[in-house]
Amino acid sequence: KTELTKQPPPTFKWIFFLTYSLPASVLPPLCMSNQTVRHGFPYQPSSMAFDPVQKILAIGTQSGALRLFGRPGVECYCQHESGSAVIQLQFLINEGALVSALADDSVHLWNLRQKRPAILHSLKFNRERITFCHLPFQSKWLYIGTERGNVHIVNVESFMLSGYVIMWNKAIELSSKAHPGPVVHISDNPMDEGKLIIGFESGIVVLWDLKSKKAEYRYAHDEAIHSVAWHHEGKQFICSHSDGTLTTWNVRGQGRPIQTITPHGKEAEPNTETEASSVVQSFVAWTCLSPFIIFSGGLSYDTVGRRPCLTVMHGKSTAVLEMDYPIVDFLTLCETPYPNDFQEPYAVVVLLEKDLVVIDLAQNGYPIFENPYPLTIHESPVTCCEYFADCPVDLIPALYSVGSRQKRQGYSKKEWPVSGGNWGQGTLSYPEIIITGNFLNSLLISITTSLFPVLFLLVMLQVLYKLKTAKVFDRNRSKEDKGSTEVSDEDPFAIQIMAWCPESRMLCVAGVSANVIVYRFSKLEVTTEVVQVGLALTPEGSNFPRLHRLSFCLSSLRSHSLLLFVAFCLLACRVRSTPLKQSAGYQVDLVIQLVWVSGEPPQQISSLALNSTYGLVVFGNSNGVAVVDYIQKTVVLNLGTVELYGSNDPYQRQPRSPRKSRQPSGGKEAEKGQNKKGTWLQTRLRLTSSGSATSEDRCKSPTSGTLLYFCLRVLYLFVFLATVLLSVCPPRGANPLDHRDNSFSRSRSSSVTSIDKESREAISLFYFCETFARKGDSTLTPCLYVGTSLGTVLVLVLTLPPAGEQRQLQPVIISPVGMLVRLKGSVLRMALLDSSGSLLPPSFDPWFEPNVTTDGEEKVPKRRPVSVSPSTSQDLSESQYAVVCSEKQAKVVSLPSQTCIYKHNITETSFILRADVVQMTQGVCLACFCANGHIKTLSLPGLRPLLDVNYLPLTDMRIARTFCFTNLGQAMYLCSPTEIQRITYSQETCENLQEMLGELFTPVETPEAPNRGFFKGLFGGGAQSLDREELFGEIAAGKASRSLAQHIPGTGGIEGMKGAASGVVGDLARARIALDERGQKLGELDERTVAMMTSADSFSKHAHEVR
Predict the structure, then answer these.
(1) Cβ atoms of 665 and 654 closer than 8 Å
(2) Which residues, in sequence order, are CB contacts of 114 under 8 Å at separation 6+?
(3) For residue 328, which phi and psi values (nearest 5 degrees)?
(4) How confident is the model over 739-772, as pLDDT tens digits?
(5) Distance CA 454, CA 466 (A)
(6) Predicted pLDDT of residue 280
């Protein structure tokens, strides 16, 4: 599969020898693919359950996913094959099992006693739809209510239906002719397991006697029922209704509620009737020894901007807790799992659409617990993502020290209540960091008022630091905008691309408004003015007048909303003119802004890179490339893409038709000037000015001329409003970022036939390095490689001044030297290898405190020395190898001869979305993710295929935008707007993955049952048990109809182990399983024997006392 480029015979023989002298260090058996863990908030949650003994929380989603949470660091992700929504979850408390009911009328039993939970049994209903499930504590019989109003009973051990069925026509009054509706609630009496309460949607509640198989009491209400909750003594229950009322019923009542309250109803005025709030009641909680009622909903619709609320009624006090998102489900946490014990809640877990909140009920003010899981990755959609492994050891503590100051105050002082499970034995020996940038609307005002990248530590995925980039700009919004929580489609502050150097801690961020912000890391708080550099990137051959800065009054145009919106887009990214107070962490060092040209907005930045050793930031788009010196705050280079080729342009381009100059007098191309001071610095810009203007005048903004000239400029801008409107103001509902991501405009082949595509060649890659710049060079030179969308790699030579004071004064000189190589498709990734095939990392400077030093002077970093040239004996051999990967193929070029020695066509029918040269434990390889879902790895420098897995079909452009590889065989992507999926393509990690995963189930003793007391035990006033096996078994109830439901055995867990075991190992496994089961049965027998002896002693004692 390795293809050699045709060369003359002497050169070909030399290449043939070199091919076999560089064996790949990463062999095919060392690469494989596997999912590791999923982080973030479950996307579109639908249900929730909690095990009070194991302290495990389960959340189901509308896509059929299950997320299980224990203590921080113990998480698990499961997926139902059908993908149907999870409508309800039920834990087998302290049994290590979970029952899930789906919207496709199927019920599944999950085994949680293994690190990767699996389904043991499934039951699919054919003729009835499931609406509600109930599993009593320490019971193996599951009650299932259906849409027809019937209740079926399932044995959770065998997952077989019982012949005992509660039909709706037997439950309601015989005189009633109407159908009661679907079953919305099922629960047994806490003090009598033989009494079952069934709630129907129409408002009818039935107390069913399981032994006599008939309805003992019936309770009717005019409004629909949403939920029912028992009092722990079993004498009363509460119902919530659709009209916002709560009704309290006595079990032995006469058909009327003993109390009806409307917590959020309107007060009655004189001579008027009381009017209840007309909102659907979502949930209702229970009462305890002291009246304690918790419910959601119940508020009226007449309040504009009403937020979802949770109401807590404790005694005479009522607290309304507002939530940021709609409430999906909530449950209360109690220490005891027994429903007949005193229910003293200590917390309530509220599942929102985009967040999980746990409220402390034991403290005044009901503070929330600090969530240890970073469930909210971003408050708005993620637009870009970068993944770093094996970072410097001092980086994590530095980020944590400054990020800890950003945490909110007022959290509960108690520990996080979800604390089940154990951590895995295996651990990662290196830290991992994820940087994500988001898209946040300018009208959304909350604690985070702008977009920000967030750094994550991927041991337990803890949020380290948040950075708000919009603080740099002036954002004037009205009070109406601040009260809005909707996410708009247009935001000029969205992050598009990022570049980060972990060693020097330099960060560079590019936004959709064609602005670039350079950040330095500092541990000290400072107040500085924001320095700004403006430039215009235009294609070669266009004679566009430059519009550098626009600042005019719009008071006379406020009646025209269209002009106001365009003016907002023009002025939205205006840098703050006042000093900016910057806290410890990442602080703004420089802002680079691409300006509008002839009424047209600048093209979005397509590539970005920085180098701390050289002190340079480079970015490019479809017009050209610009290099900025962030040390001197000057523009070093500003060239069109065509100018990078010089006279060696391989394409026959047709220049675009130049537009007529809008200047009052005829303009011509100006010389390139330089200005190092001021907030708007123009350096080496091709400016259009009038005939004999001086260099100093040409650097001034056109708005600094006469009033007539300025008016003509403004008038000219309004002429172009009609053509600019479609590009500036996209239609409502069309996200400009999504439009960019869903249209792959990059070239897919090397044979370019469209002149228009050639004239719009975009910059796709930058790579700083020290290499042999020209063919036949013998010394290493700082260089910048530039990759284009047409598959060309160009070389720029950097001439840097000496370090120290001269670096602050002398300019950096950049010279194009020609083309290195051409490939099919857009260039995606590039790296350098040494003569032994090891990866050569880019040069960097270690981090230093930029604000203060020990001697009080500014600290100037020292540039790393350039490597010496190879010795004379090594001149005949190659010293470096350049690895270049495009959308279609990969090539390895030897340096300094610039000869292609390896070439491999990675894909023919698809194209590559992401490619990275990664460092593995035993060598270097090239990792690629294709649009058809394949993950491929190639050895370096030989380009031998190591791995080709059809991992994930590209169904969402979010995956293409966020997929990224990193060192040591790790990769990640956003599988949903709120979840991060991590994968590994390293065999070593896959083999140790089982040990690294945490355990959800841990052996914990079940709490003792509540003491009934002497008098209750004597007169039979305690809880009454029920032998459900005798009542629901096949002998007493018979067999269920086979057509009603279909039993599907699971493929995982112990049952799967029994079926898959074979040979000697299988016999040992079966013997071990049999011993475990026998030991468990013996243990249960011992427990029953002890319980019988205790009961006999108690009976004997009572009998003697009666005598």
Answers:
(1) no
(2) 1052, 1053
(3) -95, -45
(4) 333 333 333 333 333 334 445 789 999 999 999 9
(5) 5
(6) 44
In this prediction, residue 984 carries a pLDDT of 85
Question: Which run of H or E residues covers position 104?
Answer: none
Determine contact, residues 993/984, Cβ cutoff 8 Å: yes
Return all residues near 742 (Cβ < 8 A) that are at least 6 apart: 957
Mapped onto helix, strand or coil, the DSSP state of residue 964 is: strand
What lies within 8 Å, CB to CB, of 807 at 6+ separation is 615, 631, 800, 801, 860, 863
Q: What is the pTM of this model?
A: 0.76
Q: What is the CA radius of gyration of the chain?
A: 35
Q: Nearest CA to 45 among 63, 29, 30? A: 63
Mean pLDDT of 305-330: 86
Sign of the four-CA dihedral 536, 539, 545, 551:
negative
Closest CA to 987 of 31, 5, 9: 31
pLDDT tier at 874, thresholds 50, 70, 90: very low
Amino acid in position 1068: L
**Interatomic CA distance for residues 218 and 205, integer angstroms:** 6
Amino acid making up residue 740: R
Which H or E run contains 992?
Answer: helix 987-996
Residue matched to tokens 């023919």:
908
Determine contact, residues 586/526, Cβ cutoff 8 Å.
no
Q: How far apart are the first and last CA of the chain?
A: 97
Residue type for position 707: L
Specify the higher pLDDT residue, 14 or 197: 197
What string of H, E and C letters represents the secondary structure of 697-718?
A: HHCCCHHHCCHHHHHHHHHHHH
> What's the pLDDT score for residue 490?
54
- Which SS3 state, helix, strand or coil, does residue 423 take? coil
Strands (E) in 523-584, as ranges, are: 526-528, 532-535, 580-582
Amino acid at 427: T
Q: What's the rounded Cα separation, in Å, for the pair 574 and 569?
A: 10
Q: Is the pLDDT of residue 660 over 80?
A: no
The mean per-residue pLDDT over the stretch 143-170 comes to 93
DSSP 368: B
190 within 8 A of 342, measured Cβ to Cβ: no
CA angle, residues 96, 102, 108, in degrees to nearest 5 = 35
Do you find a cis peptide bond into 326, omega within 30 degrees of 0? no
Q: What angle do CA 772, 775, 776 make, to 5 degrees?
A: 85
- 446 — alpha (psi -120 to 50), left (phi > 0) or beta? beta
Task: Give percent of the chain with pLDDT exceeding 90.
Answer: 33
Q: What are 998-1020's pLDDT values in tens digits?
A: 788 999 999 888 876 544 554 45
- Residue 478 has a pLDDT of 45
Residue 235 to residue 192: CA distance in whole angstroms: 10
Cβ neighbours of residue 640 under 8 Å, at least 6 residues apart?
537, 538, 539, 540, 623, 624
Q: What is the residue type of 785?
A: Y
CA 459/CA 74 separation, integer angstroms: 11
Which one, of 711, 787, 718, lies nearest residue 747 by Cα? 787
Least confident of 8-22, 79-93, 231-245, 450-464: 8-22
Please report the pLDDT score of residue 185 as a whole number.
94
**Burial tier of 661 (Cβ tally within 10 Å: 0-12, 13-18, 19+):** middle
How far are the Cα atoms of 452, 603, 978 from residue 496, in angstroms, in the given order?
11, 12, 18
